[in-house]
Amino acid sequence: MIRKDYYGILGIDKNATPQEVKKAYRRLARKYHPDVNQGASDAMQKFRDISEAYEVLGDPEKRRHFDNGFVDQSWFTEQNIDNIRDVFEKTYRKAFSKEEEPHSKNKFSFSEIFNNIVDSVNVKKEEKPPGEKPSEKKATADKSSLDVEQKMEITLEEATRGARKTITVHREKVCVLCGGTGQVRRQTCRNCNGKGGQTSSKKLEVKIPSGVRNGSKIRISKEGNTLGENTGNLYLLIQLAQHNFFLIEENGDLRCEVPITFTEAILGAEIEVPTLENKVKIKIPPESQQGKTFRIKGKGMKPAKASQSAGDLYVSLKLETPQNLSVKEKELYQELARFPHPVRKNLYSPD
Predict the structure, then answer these.
(1) pLDDT per residue over 114-125, tens digit each?
(2) 276, CA 20 to 30 Å: which among 229, 251, 268, 336?
(3) Nearest Cα to Cα of residue 79 among 97, 100, 95, 62
(4) 226 with 259, same domain?
């Protein structure tokens, strides 16, 4: 547990008497009560800190341990909050009696306000099998829980060259009273009517850096969910759309098929192959077979980082059977047929 300056929070000296501690707590509880501080986003957090400080300094034994540099999370269990509840209730009743009644759209009862504060300082016990001791876990929300992850599909060309795209982000402003659970002490939260918060949409223009890969994450600061003064980040999970020519592999390599004619396969040739940036020439050796694959180094996807290497391009040959032959072409193929090749000689035989 992080050690806090409880004396500083209550604005008292380390030699303050128990009466001075209680007086300081009552004064600050009235000052920072959420209903009195409508629109002050930090009032609830200050209110929680004040209550936590009094829980420690208002107890002689805990105060002695604290002065000796020791803080025990078990101090904040439900068993130990009765005293602070009594003081808080008296302060609450006194602060808002008669003409000092708070005027707000959302009036919360004493129990709602106090129990929400206790939930933030308190620990919740996890359910365990019979005979096993329950562990304790702090109930405050991890800031990372406010992060939002959203999928974003882009083309291979956009991933290669970079792009700017406008997207719609759906975010949630988490209720400060219930912390997004929709409940306060097992009762429906009156502030959000049990919804846990309010969802809103926003359009953002984002920059896609060149070299992103399938599964890459782009972080956009302060565009996630909101709880009080804390706002999470937005993470865009990149998904590459299926390409009509290139097959995309996870490591940044690309694969494609390039058609060649029978004469190019038999006699050899030099052909042009498209890449993401330009066209390159490769030599087809004579008597090349269907499916023969050539590797063109560095012509796959760009590297995501300067320390990484670009992917490679793998080009496979695909023999195209000629169609709509002229009479002369047919005669030439018939002439070639006079020189048979035993291509099926070594096929499987049941004998």
Answers:
(1) 555 444 444 333
(2) 268
(3) 62
(4) no
- Cα 175 off chain centre by: 20
List of residues 6+ apart from 56 with CB closer than 8 A: 6, 62, 63, 66, 71, 75
In-domain check, residue 226: yes
Q: Within 13 Å and on the Cβ side, how many CA atoms surround 228? A: 16
Q: Look up tokens 């909050």; give the residue.
A: 81
pTM, two decimals, is 0.55
Beta-bridge mates of residue 233 = none
> How many whole angstroms separate alpha carbon 201 and alpha carbon 203?
7
Where are the extended beta strands (E) located within the chain? 123-125, 136-138, 148-154, 163-174, 183-184, 187-188, 197-208, 217-220, 226-227, 230-231, 234-240, 247-248, 254-260, 269-274, 279-284, 293-296, 313-319
SS3 label, residue 42: coil
